[in-house]
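INPUT
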Amino acid sequence: MINFNKVTKKFPLGVIALDNASFKIDDEFVFLVGASGAGKTTILKLILREYLPTSGIVEINDFEVSSKKFKQVEKLRQRIGIVFQDFKVLSDKNVFENIAISLKICKVHTNEIKEQVKEMLKLVSLQDKEKVFPAQLSAGELQRVAIARAIIGERDILLADEPTGNLDPKTSWEIIKIFKKIEKKKTIIIATHNTDIVNSMQKRVIVLKDGKVVKDAKKGGYEL
Amino acid sequence: MKEVFISLRRSPYQSIAAFMVLFFTLFLSIVLFTSLSFLYSFLGFVETRPQVTAYFQPKTEESTILDIKDTLIDSGKVLSAKYISQEDAFKIYKDLNKDNPLLLEMVSADILPPSLEIYAKKPAYLPELSEYLKKQSGIDEVNFQKDIVDRLLSLTNILRKSSISFFAFLIAMSIIVLTTTTLFKIALKKDEIELLRLLGASKFYIKKPFLLEGIFNGLFAAFTSSVVLTGILYYFNPFLTSYLRGIPKLALNLDFYELVIWPINMPFFALTFALSALFGIFIAIIATSLATNKYLK
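OUTPUT
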């Protein structure tokens, strides 16, 4: 359960990135939509506790993220996977190692890591590329590695910031198919501009404008 | 270990700089340690020789000499005092000159002086004991090792004091250089560290590869510097053997162990390596922690 209660985020020069936003997300597939600067990424960063709210409360599974107990923040982050527009796949590690890193952080046993990574490679259709390095992968494949890294293990919340932003339409749909495969097991929050995907998926849509939540539709679409 | 070697390969110049500064520090440290150990053990050796020898006129009464001996022992400044009578002196003389019958014929016990061999509790008492003996009746001559002991004491003190300043300088220099090289390495892995933090990695998980690399550098530098010192000491062994002829053994008597410094031996080199390894690891851990804490803050 993710709970935003009257959350405001102001930056030092007075820019308001999020203004009194309130919503709850509970084991759902949610799109965060809005123009650039509307506050989508700010919401993701508040969930990850990269940012602290200026006012209001952000709770994840009853843990208030403003808490300064770093051990608890680490535990919280170990339950969250993140996918970036620019993939952030580590160039000096092969596909297997890139995915395994998520489990190593959580101190999973080596044998268990091998099993889980192989399973994940099948899910994202990269089973024949486990020893390949990122320089030899296409953009779509890189994003699939990033998704595998984000959902492996006990990470039950998936945050994706413009996951299809650097991909062509065909590859974008392949990525969305992967999200659909895992949606029953995870809370998925995708920040995107891609109206085609949002409209065809018919999932919950939270629309942001100038940091304010202007629409929250259970099965909605979106127009630019 | 695989990650350590990958990191060394990815940033070879920083790794070489880190290794060289650690090698320089540890090599100088173990040279100082060896020199100080040698000087202290040599000082200990000199202190086991008769430190003050008082020669009396041949006709001095034995009771007078024994009274002086008792007074010295009662002073609390003397560890032991040994009376050498004219007969004992003659025996020693005969023993020393047994190959020269002419010298033996010319000397009898009557002309040799009786003496007292005195061992002080501290070298600092030697001048005082010497002055006391010179004032006694029947004294012919007083010899003591003031010069040697004084020189050794002052040399040891100078070396000890300068070592402390030098160690402090070496530690500061090494920590600054190693912190800087680690910060370079962290900058190279900035994206990876940022990602690891977002994925929930603990601070220790992020620090671990840098700490392991620092410990590896510390151990490797300790090993190399110990090997170089061992090589140098074995190379100069013939010269040292000739120079220290007549000294069978130099050792530091620790409460629980006698550390033999001379002749050169493997346990001493093993201890030198162990100390330099600990020192190297300590420097590496401090520098790595400073760099990673600064970044993670």
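end of record. The first strand of chain B starts at residue 52 and ends at 56.
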